[in-house]
């Protein structure tokens, strides 16, 4: 297990590997929600994420795409993502997990939607196109 929390510590959780994936998302919604050029997510089966404290502090935001972003109502930390395309999964912001998990980031997604002022400068695979998951050459 790996413990995690929001910025103020009001929301505390544990994740239990194995994770399903870990990657950097460059979509415009992630960029806006985090105020950063991308956000790194780790996907887990929903039943492998246990909210240990602060459940009453969680606020959910339903996006235009039908996805839900969950954040702490005290400090504003975005913590979780659920989307209709990922039924049964809960995506957790890797930066909010305090301990190593079973994998490191493996790829970049939605690269065609990325910030123009950011250059990807690593050798991880890149995916883009209309779906955000089409392999880039």
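-> sequence recovered:
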């Amino acid at each position: 297990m790996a413990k995690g929390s929001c910025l103020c510590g009001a929301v505390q959780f544990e994740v239990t590997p194995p994770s399903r994936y870990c990657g950097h998302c460059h979509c415009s919604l992630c960029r806006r929600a985090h105020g950063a050029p991308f956000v790194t997510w780790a996907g887990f089966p929903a039943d492998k994420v246990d909210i240990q404290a602060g459940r009453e502090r969680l606020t959910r935001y339903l996006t235009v795409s039908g996805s839900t972003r969950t954040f702490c109502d005290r400090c504003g930390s975005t913590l979780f993502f659920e989307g209709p395309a990922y039924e049964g999964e809960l995506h957790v912001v890797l930066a909010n997990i305090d301990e190593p998990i079973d994998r490191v980031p493996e790829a970049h997604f939605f690269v065609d939607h990325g910030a123009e002022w950011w250059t990807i400068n690593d050798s991880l695979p890149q995916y883009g196109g209309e779906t955000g998951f089409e392999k880039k050459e």
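The first helix runs from residue 28 to 34.
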